[in-house]
Amino acid sequence: MKIGLMGLGTVGTGVVHLIDQNGRNIEKKIGEKIEIKKILVKDPNKKRTPLAEGKITFNAEDILEDEEIDVVVEVMGKEHPALEYITKALQKGKHVVTANKEVIAKHGKELIKLATEKKVHLLYEASVGGGIPIIRPLKQCLAANKIYEIKGILNGTTNYILTEMKEKGLDFDDVLKDAQQKGYAEADPTDDIEGFDAARKLAILCMLAFNKFVLPEKIYTKGISFISKSDIQYAEEMGYTIKLLAYARIDEKERLEAWVHPVMIRKTNPLNGVNGVFNAILVDGNAVGEVMFYGQGAGMMPTASAVVADIMDVKNHIVIQNGCEEVDLIPIEDTFSKYYIRLIAFDRPGVMSKITGVLGNKGISLLSVVQKGSLGETAEIVLVTHIANTGKVLEALKEIEELKEVEKIESVIKVRED
Ligand SMILES: NC(=O)C1=CN([C@@H]2O[C@H](COP(=O)(O)OP(=O)(O)OC[C@H]3O[C@@H](n4cnc5c(N)ncnc54)[C@H](OP(=O)(O)O)[C@@H]3O)[C@@H](O)[C@H]2O)C=CC1
Ligand SMILES: N[C@@H](CC=O)C(=O)O
Ligand code: NA
């Protein structure tokens, strides 16, 4: 099997090393040798692994036009030109393995159709949960179920940041730098910390689990960049842990709810023990019940593990996936949740009643309201609501932010008791 590898960064280098390290075993399992014939990169000045010697090219056509190459492995990242290269490879009848969640989330529907027409594989196990097997289990092992709900921690970088901030009291920016050095973060880490990467992964899971295609930009997404050490401390005091949760469910009317949001979860929640770069995905199927997938969601070798397994799977029979329907989501305003709200208000008499008044007028009742001490002119106020309509909460937040007694709403985090 001859491979054209596109990208030799964190994941690409892991793939080259894994095939070198485990080559014998892999050969025995699939009954033939895997040879990486060419490797596409961009920067002529970067130092490369010695294993790449004599294989480097700067021209994608060297791979796409090479008749001998039967599998293209795309691990470059970003939407373009990855989409164009994947499309061309499929059109040329080459199998494609990719770790690119952006391309699969946004263009998976047409790429799957093209691969099916051309009778080639399009495999993307590394695109969700890094090294955790989740794509293949959803496509195959759980295929007999009707799946109602998927929830999980889908981004290693943000889970690493939240864990290090909580356990070591480190600052957000320092932990982010560390995650970048470890190769966990996307080329633009905004994708991680603002939740876009998790939303792309959630869109892929919706496509596989519910057969519903939804563009990731339609998923209501809030990241963790606003979360401070004090939110983490308050969560701790109240008996919760903050996680960036990706959530999707099908309601009784077959409508899809999907969002990515920081959530305070109880210590008893199975996701509470998912720390650092680890991800976990809980899938609820009508026959199997709840199943949990757990492992390293990012990093060189765990991700390479999924990519190389996909390369090996090219030898198996082609799984035809029928097209899935394009759907609208349940508007986030129509969903329900408890909320934690932390805000800074001017320390004046009557301020508390103004704030609670706005919430009361919207029919939002409060579980607790605490003034966390004075910061000179201002005071920090922490509110936790009962389960409330998100549309009403968003309206109330807007009104509260406009009150002259309020300086700033610092944090809004969902709270779950499951
Ligand atoms: N890192 C991780 O833990 C995980 C990453 N992924 C996904 O895997 C993919 C790769 O990620 P990662 O390895 O971290 O990314 P890196 O940024 O480390 O590597 C990207 C590689 O692609 C090459 N490249 C990028 N653009 C071009 C281009 N236009 N032409 C030619 N070569 C190009 C770069 O070349 P050069 O070396 O010359 O700069 C580099 O070798 C992404 O889609 C990412 O989302 C998925 C799961 C986990
Ligand atoms: N940047 C991503 C990499 C894996 O998909 C993450 O941190 O999870
Ligand atoms: Na995976």
From TrEMBL:
What's one Pfam family the UniProt record gives for this protein?
ACT
**What InterPro entries does the entry give?**
ACT-like_dom_sf, ACT_dom, Asp/hSer_DH_NAD-bd, HDH, HDH_cat, HDH_CS, NAD(P)-bd_dom_sf
Q: What class of enzyme is it?
A: oxidoreductase
Which PROSITE patterns did the record assign?
Answer: ACT, HOMOSER_DHGENASE
- Out of the domains of life, which is the source? Bacteria
Binding of NADPH: at which residues?
A: K101
Molecular function via GO: homoserine dehydrogenase activity; metal ion binding; NADP binding
UniProt-annotated catalytic positions: K201 (proton donor)
Query: Can you state which reaction this protein catalyses?
Result: L-homoserine + NADP(+) = L-aspartate 4-semialdehyde + NADPH + H(+)
Binding residues for L-homoserine = E186
Assigned keywords, A-Z = Amino-acid biosynthesis, Metal-binding, Methionine biosynthesis, NAD, NADP, Oxidoreductase, Sodium, Threonine biosynthesis
> Would the keyword Mitochondrion be found if you checked this record's keyword annotation?
no
Enzyme Commission number, as recorded:
1.1.1.3
Q: In which pathway does it act?
A: Amino-acid biosynthesis; L-threonine biosynthesis; L-threonine from L-aspartate: step 3/5; Amino-acid biosynthesis; L-methionine biosynthesis via de novo pathway; L-homoserine from L-aspartate: step 3/3
Q: Which family does this protein fall into?
A: Belongs to the homoserine dehydrogenase family.
Q: Which NCBIfam families match?
A: PRK06349.1
Q: What is this protein called?
A: Homoserine dehydrogenase
Q: What is the lineage of its organism?
A: Bacteria, Bacillati, Bacillota, Clostridia, Thermoanaerobacterales
